Request: fold
Amino acid sequence: MNNNFVLMAQYNEWMNAKIYATAGELSEADLAAPRGAFFGSILGTLNHIVVGDRIWLRRFAAHPSGYSALAPMIDLQPPSALSQILYTDLNELAEHRKWLDQIILDWAGSISDRDQNHILRYTTTKGIANAKRFGDLVIHFFNHQTHHRGQVTTLLHQAGNDVGVTDLLMLIPNAQSA
Reply:
């Protein structure tokens, strides 16, 4: 088991809970308001994170280890675009997010060191074939979430709502002195 992946999955869940709670304080109009972000609005950016997660988790489900935690991803309709709005209602999006976060937690704990060296072949959303080391793709997966959540925290701050502390450091346990 890779403890770093588990830590990142825990961070993902923690931050998503904070962001969705803060976003829930805004009106529907404020959530959907164009804010100059790459995916337009707070709601657009939150949807993009879910779209990205669904794309990557479906790809990861093809790993020869056959991660049982990712089995539900196979049945989901693949997103049609990186900017697709899967949910216009924040509560529905938040419920889907919680479901995804539990899948990610369960999956992260099942990734072995040996799994990370597998070369995963996949096709990008633009139809380009790729082959990359699985462990590196998992790092990208978590980094992508963090990157866009950083954008959301900025957009929420600009809307007058503070998410609070966002540092991964808050989840890293204190070490015991020898």
The chain has a mean pLDDT of 96.
